[in-house]
Amino acid sequence: MGMKKVTYLLIGIGVVVFALVGARTQSATDEFRFEAGKLKDTSVWTQVNKDPYYISASADALCRAPSAANYESERKTNPHAGTYITVYVNQIGRDAMFSKKLRRFPEGSVIVKEKIGNYFEGRKPVLYTLMRKREPGYNPAVGDWEFSVVAANGTQVEAIGKLENCQGCHINKQDSDFVFRPYVNSQ
Fold first, then answer.
1. Which terminus of the chain has a lower count of CB atoms within 10 Å, N or C?
2. Measured between alpha carbons, how far is 89 from 56 in angstroms, rounded to an integer?
């Protein structure tokens, strides 16, 4: 094999390797994995509210994975059946979350709402809901947020994407980049 052919072969292999690595890198940057066990890692997450924040039974019933099955009738009829939430934000979204002036969250921001069960459920996590700020144009109706619902085990994704039940509430918060913030404590 001549030197010219070897050079072309090496260039061809280099192009293929570059394309494969580039494709892998591109998909990896879009990949987001949530692990609830890491929420206490302060190098990644900031706890937004010092004490669990109470949410009403009606808000609790709306904030879950979409499903054809009806949510527990107890939550819909008992005003004491609401849950508490603890909210976390990653470092990318921290400044926007704690800003006195409402502002847009930067791409890559992630907000986690840990739903904590009521007294009868043992005051342990029952569900996690996440908002992840995606690239411009991903979901313009709600500020390019992607919504996820993660099971109580903290890793099993039950739903992800442009979830209508999430968007139905958040669409009314355009003035705060579609984020509810009544639980924000000063840090």
1. N
2. 22
pLDDT tens readout for residues 55-68 = 766 666 666 655 43
CA separation for the pair 109, 98 (Å, rounded): 13
Say yes or no to pLDDT of 102 above 60: yes
Distance from C-alpha of 25 to C-alpha of 19, rounded to nearest angstrom: 10
| Tokens of residue 38, six digits | 């890491």
Q: How far apart are CA 35 and CA 119, in angstroms?
A: 25
pTM for the whole thing? 0.72
Q: Among candidates 185, 117, 158, 168, which has minimal Cα distance to 34?
A: 158
Give the separation between CA 147 and CA 133, rounded to whole angstroms: 9
Cα 55 to chain centroid distance, Å, stands at 18
Residues 6+ apart with CB under 8 A from 125: 36, 114, 115, 116, 117, 152, 154
Question: Measured between alpha carbons, how far is 130 from 162 in angstroms, rounded to an integer?
Answer: 12
% pLDDT > 90, the chain: 50
